[in-house]
């Protein structure tokens, strides 16, 4: 054996299912470049034509800043709302057997499948003063359509699948024994949820909420039909981009777009870093 | 604390997991529930813990009726088969959990909890791992942490589901001895589930053998081994060879093979159960028996040599196993493929219509 080892044999190559690193990584990078990096570079080049001063004046325009506030607040409230509702939906889908569970499960993806403009028009119709829900809410003195509340509603609708679909698999893998262990140790239902179940779901839930938030930042189709689009009150940032485009002011459009892009990227990176740290603890170093 | 189990039964859908069964466990006793998978042993354990509700019957801890008590109020320690440690908590936090969720009035102070946790970790000899996470521990370490966690609230009843199932043989043996020591030291009542007969016999004060949702036999390990009371227990305890005999002219026959009937046995058809070490092996038949077999494997195992044999011109459902001391084996120089004759020294006889066996001894 020992003598055999000292002879310089060519080692048998380990067989993998996918072709080697060079080819698979190359293809991935090429695709990402074509589909993501190239348009992003275009965006940067468009804005590069403007000087810093001009760039700053476009992105800090009063009306645009108002739109940031509206968008951020609406996206924030929508994603927090989705955090709760999405967790509840995932919980119901995983933990309970009931007739129509499969259908409900499929319906969760509907906001992804539906053209967002269709969603926006449908929501606007339902919540308009004479719509099915709108007329009831109107009698209670609540206005949804053509107000910031409508924006939140549209954002929440289009981005809820993110939360459900990130939490669901984690919930499915959670071993019932950990809950039972909590109970045998005398913990109340609430204590088991708070100290055993929730910490396990937390990273997935945060990711889902962050995805929902970034998606809401960029949502256009669903929102504009229900938002009313009143300057300083219910204009979202995507609309500001659209307006600039309509005026053939491409550099201004890309400048505003770059702000949205940056905000989303920073948030996604932050979430990824935080999650990696959290998961490393769970899976050992 | 003593445990009284009375007429407990359970079914899942159409499947009867437990037929009504009763069992008394004395204070401080260590009971092994032994049986194949699907025998209902884990279900019984979970019913004792309160993780599963029984359909009928009553459970009492000491004088306290706990039948309708929720698992969290039963105050039992439960160790899960896969340990079920909380993955996102450190070892110390895992152990502290049971103390930290106590109602405020009963909860010790933070420093007291810390002290108790360190004491428990010392007890399981893993104090140096207090700040690790479960994913960084080996199986044996996880098992000991799971035990420390279950013992933190000082339960009087400790329930263990296949506690050593996932560990390798050496660690398993160590942990077994350690658990037994801990049990004797702290004096709690333990019930554990296992499918490993060696583990059950070594660790328990009494063994409860289960099959198909009922109890086959309850006995001390020695008594259980000496007198299994049914075919099932025989088969399950293992290392037994079965000779299916037709009685004729003072002998049991099967094909060309025959075994002489000792006077204690009824002159009836039936099965002979003979343990693997209760044999002579010789190159030719003896007065007592003529059982021709062919050696198909020779495995030295510890103090003995195990022969695997198949019958020649008679029938047996399984391969026969015979254990010989090295001395006897060396004297005869048996080889693979050789034909040999075996002669039983002692065994058990089940008459065809009988439930209970009769002990037999052949004189030589």
From TrEMBL, chain A:
The keyword Transport applies. The keyword Transmembrane helix applies. InterPro entries: CysT_permease (IPR011865), MetI-like (IPR000515), MetI-like_sf (IPR035906), Sulph_transpt2 (IPR005667). Keywords: Membrane, Sulfate transport, Transmembrane, Transmembrane helix, Transport. The chain crosses the membrane at residues 21-45, 70-94, 106-128, 220-243, 255-274. One of its GO terms (molecular function) is ABC-type sulfate transporter activity. It holds the Pfam family BPD_transp_1. PANTHER family: SULFATE TRANSPORT SYSTEM PERMEASE PROTEIN (PTHR30406), SULFATE TRANSPORT SYSTEM PERMEASE PROTEIN CYST (PTHR30406:SF10). Belongs to the binding-protein-dependent transport system permease family. CysTW subfamily. The complex is composed of two ATP-binding proteins (CysA), two transmembrane proteins (CysT and CysW) and a solute-binding protein (CysP). This is Sulfate transport system permease protein CysT. It comes from Marinomonas transparens.
From TrEMBL, chain B:
The keyword Nucleotide-binding applies. Pfam families: ABC_tran (PF00005), TOBE_3 (PF12857). GO terms for cellular component: ATP-binding cassette (ABC) transporter complex. Transmembrane segments: none annotated. It comes from the Bacteria. The keyword Glycoprotein does not apply. GO terms for molecular function: ABC-type sulfate transporter activity; ATP binding; ATP hydrolysis activity. InterPro entries: AAA+_ATPase, ABC_SmlMolc_Importer, ABC_transporter-like_ATP-bd, ABC_transporter-like_CS, Mo/tungstate-bd_C_term_dom, P-loop_NTPase, Sulph_transpt1, TOBE-like. CDD domains: ABC_CysA_sulfate_importer. PROSITE patterns: ABC_TRANSPORTER_1, ABC_TRANSPORTER_2. NCBIfam families: 3a0106s01 (TIGR00968). This is TOBE-like domain-containing protein.
